[in-house]
Amino acid sequence: MADAKPQPIPMADLPVGAAARITQIRGGRELARRLLGLGLRVGSEVRVLHHRGGGLVVSSGEARVALGGGVVDKLWVEPLPDEQAPQT
User: Fold this and answer.
1) Mean pLDDT of the chain
2) CA torsion, points 82, 69, 74, 83, in degrees to nearest 10?
3) Are 58 and 77 in contact (CB under 8 A)?
């Protein structure tokens, strides 16, 4: 039997240290453009560094990005197993 693909979850539900791949941006074109300017897009792999109020600080590659709660609520991710997680 093949492994089931993980279901997308809200990025806000990720614990500190978890790695995930962005699968959906549930916002408009302007939000997608702003995130692209920060180096984040659908398919980007991120790791949660810490929670900051309602927001998160994540790493993507060499970059660290602080995201407010309003943005985090619009990002849905697929958790990655540890062996696929991006190294930070």
Assistant:
1) 89
2) 0
3) no
